[in-house]
Write a structure and sequence with these properties.
By secondary structure, the protein is α/β, with parallel strands linked by helices. About 55% of the residues lie in helices and about 5% in strands. Helix 8 packs across helix 9, helix 9 packs across helix 18 and helix 15 crosses helix 17. The protein is globular, with a radius of gyration of 25 Å.
């Protein structure tokens, strides 16, 4: 193989061409499709992020004191958040770290820059922007890696958008879309490190990742692995038994962890004092989460404790959620990267493996408030894109009558066909949480309007088995002007929202109070039923 052939091999770097027109087209498509979609499923992380971001926006714009004092007040924990209700002495509640600091700033910024709308719709605009930037960053990395110019850039962006839940994340508070963007930026920084520069950029992106999830700290492992693999000099074998010499890494890279900590602490006003204690509480908060219940095919399952390694559970979840064509392209991309050797795009594979193992620490990928699913979109799409390019090259060699561009286009169309149809038809898996599967923003308003038009005297009480249900419904409807109020007891309410997941415990508990009356209106979403009753 000649040097020129090796330089253009799948998984190895190639020069990228102009991308402006393709990126503009991708941005327009995402804006039209995502903003035109109904409100996506809100999971626990999105609910908490919306509530925390709204509190921060309120604190920054109202009250007395300087900006620093108002920011610290906006980062205080909310005693009504379900984790604090269940465990008020938990470190996350003691250290004001129930919600991710970066998510708070992101949602507060969206609310402050779009004050004409309520916080939920403002956040969806920010989420759409974050998803566009994540898609464009992924496309740029793929074009830089395997060359194809604008076509490769469009392919990388399309593969990320084809991941289950990606487009839906643009209609929520933006926690998932922001996670995809931060990971894509981290991969971009790692590629700069592989070329001998970019330690400062790597530290900045790692700090942002740490501000979204405690697992961000483990991305130091693939960062140093990428730097070591790109270092050309081979280490001399050690003649001392039991010692394995490691390849050298740039000395400047050791500044990345310090930069990451500075960025994280700067983004979290609560950590401006007692920094070590706050940082320790944040790092262990993800591990302390209980393994969440999983909804599979409409059936609720508890994760088997002590019967399978959690990392294996996370890997199986990722396989089950990745569309089959993308998974096949990913496997081909792994083989192409291995053939490329040191010039291959290894950072997505290393990041994916690290996150899968880390995700298992708190019960799998879908750990409610510690959800890592969106962090896997960019690394999966990048390796799958390399696989599409490799299969296109192979098709062009087998069928010489096809131009390389047509061969790559045919393979890309086949890989994206099934996920595209699933998006258009609204089928396929969703990141359904214990309560998030039923929590859509218009749901309570629609129920109230169907039962009786709400007026200034309408008061609503929510009854649910878990506090998550009531918390989610209240957060999604309390922002902005509403013609009704939430109350703390059924005696103060004129309407009762009854939320149940099939156990019937809530209905039997209220049987005496509600009598035999039928609900005024009902709605089902994600296997959870919500009924509207006249208060006793």
């Amino acid at each position: 193989m000649t040097d020129e052939t090796r330089r253009h091999s799948p998984g190895g770097p190639r020069p990228a061409a102009g991308r402006g027109a393709w990126f503009g087209l991708i941005a327009a498509v995402v804006l039209v499709v995502s903003l035109g979609r109904p409100a996506a499923v809100w999971d626990a992380a999105e609910i908490d992020g919306l509530a925390a971001g709204a509190r921060l926006a309120d604190a920054l714009t109202t009250g007395s004191g300087g900006l620093r004092e108002r920011a610290r007040r906006g980062f205080e924990s909310d005693a009504g958040v379900p984790p604090c209700v269940a465990r008020p002495d938990a470190p996350a509640c003691q250290r004001h770290a129930t919600e991710a600091p970066l998510a708070r700033w992101f949602i507060a910024g969206a609310a402050l820059t779009a004050p004409a709308t309520d916080d939920a719709s403002s956040a969806s605009y920010g989420a759409t922007l974050a998803l566009i930037l994540a898609a464009l960053t992924t496309g740029l990395l793929l074009a830089r890696s395997c060359g194809g110019g604008a076509g490769a850039a469009a392919l990388g962006a399309a593969l990320l958008l084809a991941m289950p839940g990606a487009l839906g994340s643009a209609s929520t508070a933006g926690v998932a879309a922001l996670g995809a963007l931060v990971v894509a930026l981290t991969l971009a920084a790692m590629e700069r490190v592989a070329r001998g520069r970019g330690a400062i950029a790597a530290g900045l992106t790692l700090g942002l990742a740490l501000g979204l999830h405690p697992a961000g700290v483990v991305l130091l492992l693939p960062l140093f692995a990428v730097a070591a693999a790109a270092t050309r000099p081979r280490p001399r074998p050690s003649h001392e038994p039991g010692l394995l010499p490691l390849p050298p890494v740039p000395v400047s890279l050791f500044a990345a962890p310090a930069i990451a900590l500075i960025v994280f602490v700067a983004s979290w006003p609560a950590a401006w004092h007692e920094t070590t204690r706050h940082l320790g509480a944040w790092l262990v908060s993800g591990i302390a989460q209980a393994a969440p219940r999983q909804t599979i095919g409409g059936v609720l399952f508890d994760q088997p404790a002590g019967r399978a390694p959690s990392a294996l559970v996370a890997a199986l979840q990722w396989v089950a959620w990745t569309p089959v064509p993308l998974l096949g392209a990913w496997l081909v991309g792994v083989a192409a990267t291995a053939r490329a050797g040191r010039r291959g795009l290894w950072s997505p594979l290393l990041v994916l493996a690290t996150l899968l193992v880390t995700a298992g620490l708190d019960g799998g990928l879908f750990a409610e408030r510690r959800n890592l699913l969106s962090w896997l979109w960019a690394p999966t799409a990048l390796t799958a894109g390399i696989g599409v390019v490799a299969m296109g090259d192979a098709l062009a060699r087998v069928r010489p009558n096809l131009s390389p561009r047509l061969a790559h286009g045919l393979v890309a169309a086949l890989v994206l066909l099934l996920p595209g149809l699933a998006l258009l038809l609204g089928v396929g898996p969703r990141a359904a949480q214990r309560f998030g599967a039923a929590t859509r923003q218009p749901l309570p308003e629609a129920l109230l309007a169907r039962g009786a038009p709400p007026d200034a005297e309408t008061t609503v009480y929510v009854v649910a088995e878990a506090p998550d249900y009531a918390h989610a419904l209240q957060v999604l409807t309390e922002r902005g002007p509403r013609p009704y109020r939430w109350v703390e007891s059924p005696e103060q309410a004129s309407r009762v929202l009854l939320v149940r997941d099939g156990s019937g415990a809530e209905r039997s508990a209220l049987a005496g109070a509600l009598g035999q009356q039928e609900p005024l209106a009902s709605s089902d979403a994600g296997g959870v039923r919500v009924d509207l009753y006249v208060a006793p």
